Structures are given as C-alpha cells and as structure tokens.
Amino acid sequence: MIEVQNLTRVFRTYKKQPGFWGGVKGLFNRTYEETAAAKDITFSIAEGEFVGFLGPNGAGKTTTLKMLSGLIFPTSGTARVAGFDPTKRENAYRRIFALVMGQKNQLWWDLPAIESFTLLKAIYGLQPDDYKKTLDELVELLGVSEKLNVMVRELSLGERMKMELIAALIHRPKVLYLDEPTIGLDVVSQRAVRLFLRDYNRRHRVTIILTSHYMADIKELCERVVVIHKGSKIYDGALDRLESGSDSRKKIVRFVPKDAAFSELWKSRFGETTRGDIHAAGLERRHRRGRPGGAGDGPGRRHHDRGRPSRGRDRRALPVTLTSSRRRRGEPGSDARVIRGAPAVFPGHRRRRP
Q1: Beta strands in 217-276 (DSSP E)
Q2: In 3D, which of 204, 203, 134 has the Cα closest to residue 175?
Q3: Which among 92, 97, 307, 327 could disulfide-bond with 336, CB atoms 3.0 to 4.6 Å apart, if both were Cys?
Q4: Is 289 a member of any domain?
Q5: Which CATH number covers residue 37?
Q6: Residues 6 or more apart from 308 whose CB is under 8 A from it?
Q7: 169 in a domain, yes or no?
Q8: 327 phi and psi, to 5 degrees?
Q9: Is the whole model's pTM more than 0.85, yes or no?
Q10: What is the DSSP letter of 341?
Q11: Residue 124, H or E segment
Q12: Is 15 exposed, middle or buried (0-12, 13-18, 19+ CB in 10 A)?
C-alpha cells in the first residue's frame, strides 16, 4: 500500500543577525543553514496495517507524513501510496487518504460540525445514502450525536477531536495519517479515541500510520513501529522486540527489604545511619540553637530584632505587657505600663469614640 524509498527533505533557513543593522546586512549578504528533517527514510506498509511512527520532537515524523500527503515536496527519494505519487497531487489520490493533525483543525470554527460535514460531502461528491450511512456509523461509534449542532468553538478538546476524525473518515479513505491525535486529551477521551481507531481499522481494513508521544496509544493499537531519530530511521519492526531487545537501554532499580542488609558496594564509607542517630542529631542541633526539646528552662534564641520573646525567655523582661482588651486599647483603669515618650494609643489601634 505504501512504499517509501530514500525519502529526504532538507529545509534551508535564513539566519538573521540581531538588531536593525543585522536586518540591513541581511539584504545584501545572507547566511543560510540547511537542516535535514528526513534523511534516506525507507519502509513499506501493507494494506490494513496499523503502524506506529515514533521519535522525539524534531525527528521528522510530521515532515514525513506531509510528504506522503503531498503537502510538501521531498528533496530526493520516492514515495508511492496505493500506486499514486503524492508529489503529483492528483484528485484521485486525494480521495483515498486523510490527514488528521492534533494541533490543527479542518472544521469551521464558528459553525456546527454538521455544516462542515455537509461541505465535505459536496467536495468529495458523495452520494446522499452513502454519506448518511457513513455519518451515522461514525457518530454512533464516537457517541457524539448530541453535539452535531453545536458550534465547534464551544466543544471540548475531546469532542473536537472526535469531530475531526469524523471529518477525516466521512469519504471512507483507504489510508489514514494520524499526527498526535490524542495530544492534550484527558485519559477518558484518549481511551475513547483508541477504541474507535482500533474498531474502525478492523472493520474496514484501513492502512493507518500513527505518530504519538503516548506509549499507551502505541501499545494498544500498533504491533509494528518505525522509529526515527534526527531524520534517520533507526528501527523498523515489532514493538515487543523493541521493548525486550538487547539494544534497548533500561535502568533497573531494585529496592532492598527493610530487614535485609546492603551489599558492600552500597555501603557508605562514612558508616550506617539509623533513626536513633537522626533523632539524636536533631536534639543536638536544637540544643545548640538554645531550643531544648524537653521540659526545663533555657536561654532560648533571642529575637531582639523582631521584638517578640522566645520560648525560654522571661516575658517579665519585656517593656510592655498588654494582656486584656482594655490594656491593648489603653483605656482608663487598665494597669498597662506607660512608656515615657510613647504615644497614648499604640499604632494600629483605633481610638474608641466616647
């Protein structure tokens, strides 16, 4: 169904120097940088296969899908999809594939989704009976019958992605390219999309290429994966062999039981530390700070800068002691001590009207 041979795409980008004069210099002398988004990628996919396309950000996954869709032209190499050359952009080829991108939408933002479906029906020239049958099947599988007449901008992210899938499959394509369809979705919506894709692939034998950073999508849907890194293919095979192969790098952490002893390699050269040692060290630190952990008097940590007593400090040494509300307000009859040179009413307290 899909045959790719040495597919390469090189982007040429202009490196502008900073500042106004840097832009002026760029009018006469420009510096360019060439980046190979895809380098000699070769693979083949049979009809009805569900293949995962893996790789880090910037590896060239989306670029490859765009070349297979005919959106961009390859620098070198060839690609054949169902006998068609994507670079020619024939109408017959456009009718047999669909591209769904999780970060871009094809539905009209200010119209209900059903209006966009009607427009796609006219674009693809679908028969009314076939259109209604396909639409009813997709709506039932995704469970969005009550949201067809709601404007797209008022739908949630999960509901919007379901509508995007309906729009992509309304003309029953033979090849489906999915570029991170579950990005940003919650766990429930991700599972609903995965169940739908798996069921639809089994029913209609659609060839699907899925790119995703969620391994749950790949594990549940794909038996074969193609891994690319920095534009080059580094693995093509079964997902199980990728996880359990000798080339895969793993870090295994073993937890030692509570009563078991550590091996000699794990022991510190400073000796072992127990809970009792930690507790004793804490008491020693508190004692050095003047804050004894048990009962008894101590010098305490001084707070001269803050003007408040510490635990062990004698409160009678304070210049003012205000305990009752009358003392705080400085009313007559209170036994609050008067500080020479201090205001009659302390700052922050409002004078009570007579």
Answers
A1: 224-229, 232-238
A2: 204
A3: 327
A4: no
A5: 3.40.50.300
A6: none
A7: yes
A8: -70, -40
A9: no
A10: T
A11: helix 113-124
A12: exposed
